[in-house]
Design brief:
27 strands, binds 5'-O-(acetylsulfamoyl)adenosine, globular, alpha/beta, 8-stranded mixed sheet
Length: 606
């Protein structure tokens, strides 16, 4: 209705507590990295905390439309922070805690965040990450670039036993021992403890009433130019799409215990760990750790501990567990499981079958959900037990989604076909713009084929009308379900003094799906040594984050180029794979370099 108002946080919490009488229902079981370290929070407790933190934000001067950067591990305060932003109409921009200081700084600057919310430190498996130190590095860089960000709110997470705001946290002895010596850097001019602000905050907080088209959040995703794009979602359409797709795709039932293993720093964690499940009044598991710690059976022990009914994870995790055999899975009951989901990249039929046979014991339908940060929610997906499955196919469009396959000239292909996957009409959860760059939004998604939304993925439709995603067809690659742009990695390599040119291509990898194979040309006077490749890897890790660490770096005295000077990555991909079938190379300016590059390939992981 025109002129009507809403608030997404109200719909997720107040409505469930007051109208649906779900106040005492568990919203989240929090499972810490260390087994035995756990907590839970009900809908009314969550509402209470969100209201308190929304008041904290208001008392810091945060207003509707302001951008708030969130850089946190997988803890309950992360959900509280994001919903508090939504309650007062501020836009959250969540940055995955595995990203580097440079990446965080770039994202803070791009959308002009006025405040950062972070945590002291956390463990991922047995690795300690002093998040506050990385955040400080990012803030220093931001300051050098004239950014006005003035406040940093810090959750005391690792050292939290002294805090016990709600008395629900317990901590196992090994963790205590591990965190004794951690020093957290502190800047009194800027930093404030979360628990100190919360201790005096009221839990009465009127939501900011919003138009359905008001901005909800920004989430950065890799762009093919190398600079991350700030995907912007709005309140009404996103809420509807996340809520509805969650309900139908997971066949949500009130007694479900749902577990999405994605990090909230990615879109899956926004739509299917936070907004979608909470809109439906669901009970979810929020897991801080990794699938392999303390052992390879952790996922299944969590499934049994909470009697998880619906489980949503990524092919990369499935392949990792598959490699360890069936034993660690079979050791656990898993009889609560009803539906299994997959997201993030194409799932190879072998991994699909293992997931189906071993994890689900041929009892649980698999929903292979294809979608993007930009789409807000599921686009191609089976409905569990209703859609006949084919291993490796995301099957058919979700309600309201109209896909098409186009050829290079933009003609729609009928029947069995392969080409560009596009969508022909808008859907509620479609992104509304790229923050601060509507022009780039238009060119990226709507220019190549006017009248269509272009996904950037290739796709095949079989004789039965099933859709099969064949992977990215732009300069993007998908490492363990995370999109990276080759340009972004190239520019990180080029910042090294020894490198004059760099070209990065995607290379198949048995666990990660794809990995990075880099070709580098050295400046005169530099030598290609193990020390240099180590430095380059470190540089990429520091500029982007550990997920972008190159697997292979090859020294290239020259790179194959077209006469107009464009590097032909198509040929480099084949060199990386040792595929001699190069096709037409007549357009190359320097075909002589190819033989040399074949002879100096890296065969083993460095
Ligand atoms: C949800 C998410 C988007 C890209 C997308 C694809 C790939 C995602 C599937 C998939 C095949 C799937 N958002 N992708 N899901 N490919 N089958 N079920 O991952 O913005 O981070 O990535 O991921 O290439 O364009 S994302």
């Amino acid at each position: 209705m025109k002129g009507a108002t809403t608030n997404i946080c109200y719909n997720l919490l107040d409505r469930n507590v007051n109208e649906k009488k779900l106040g005492d229902k568990i919203a989240f079981y929090w499972e810490g990295n260390e087994p035995g370290d756990s907590a839970k929070i009900t809908y009314s407790e969550l509402l209470h905390k969100v209201c308190q933190f929304a008041n904290v934000l208001r008392s810091q001067g945060v207003k509707k439309g302001d951008r708030i950067s969130i850089y946190m591990p997988m803890i309950l305060e992360l959900v509280v922070a994001m919903l508090a932003c939504a309650r007062i109409g501020a836009l959250h921009s969540i940055v995955f805690a595995g990203f580097s200081a440079d990446s965080l700084c770039e994202r803070i600057l791009d959308c002009g965040c006025s405040l950062l919310i972070t945590a002291d430190a956390f463990y991922r498996g047995d690795k300690l990450i002093i998040l506050k130190q990385i955040a400080d590095e990012a803030l220093q860089k931001c300051k050098d670039k004239g950014c006005p960000l003035k406040k940093c709110i810090v959750v005391k997470h690792l050292a939290r036993e002294e805090v016990a705001v709600d008395g629900t946290c317990s901590k196992s002895p090994p963790l205590k021992r591990l965190c004794q010596d951690v020093q957290i850097p502190w800047n009194p001019a800027m930093d404030v403890w979360w628990h100190e602000l919360m201790s005096s905050a009221s839990s009465e907080c009127e939501p900011e009433w919003c138009d359905s088209e008001d901005e909800l959040f920004i989430l950065y995703t890799s762009g093919s130019t190398g600079k991350p794009k700030g995907v912007l979602h709005t309140v009404g359409g996103y809420m509807l799409f996340a809520a509805t797709s969650f309900k139908y795709v997971f066949d949500y039932q009130p007694e479900d215990v749902y577990w999405c293993t994605a990090d909230i720093g990615w879109i899956t964690g926004h739509s299917y760990l936070t907004y979608g499940p909470l809109a439906n009044g669901a009970t979810s598991v929020l897991f801080e750790g990794v699938p392999t710690y303390p052992d390879i059976g952790r996922m299944w022990s969590i499934v049994d501990k909470y009697k998880v009914t619906k489980f949503y994870t990524a092919p990369t995790a499935i392949r990792l567990l598959m490699k360890q055999g069936e034993e660690p899975v079979r050791k656990h009951s898993r009889k609560s499981l009803k539906v299994l989901g997959s997201v993030g990249e194409p799932i190879n039929p072998e991994a699909w079958l293992w997931y189906y046979r071993v994890v689900g014991e041929e009892r649980c339908p698999i929903v292979d959900t294809f979608w993007q940060t930009e789409t807000g929610g599921h686009m191609l997906t089976p409905l569990p037990a209703a859609t006949p499955m084919k291993p490796g196919s995301a099957t058919f469009p979700f309600f309201g989604v109209v896909p098409a396959i186009l050829n290079e000239s933009g003609e729609e292909l009928e029947g069995e076909a392969e080409g560009y996957l596009v969508f022909k009409q808008p859907w509620p959860g479609i992104m509304r713009t790229l923050y601060g760059n509507h022009q780039q939004f238009e060119t990226t998604y709507f220019k190549k084929f006017p009248g269509y939304y272009v996904t950037g993925d290739g796709c095949r439709r079989d004789k039965d009308g099933y859709y099969w995603i064949t992977g990215r067809i732009d300069d993007m690659l998908n490492v363990s379900g995370h999109l990276l742009s080759t340009a972004e990695v190239e520019s990180a390599l080029l910042e090294h003094a020894a490198i004059s040119e760099a070209a990065v291509v995607s290379h198949p990898h048995p666990l990660k799906g794809e990995c990075l194979y880099c070709f580098v040309t050295l400046r005169d006077g530099h030598e290609f040594t193990k020390k240099l490749t180590d430095e380059l890897k470190k540089q990429v890790r520091e500029k982007i984050g550990p997920i972008a660490t190159p697997d292979y770096i090859q020294c290239a005295p020259g790179l194959p180029k077209t006469r107009s000077g464009k590097i032909t990555r198509r040929i480099l991909r084949k060199i990386a794979k040792n595929d001699q079938d190069l096709g037409d190379i007549s357009t190359l300016a320097n075909p002589g370099i190819i033989k040399h590059l074949f002879n100096s390939r890296c065969d083993t992981k460095q």
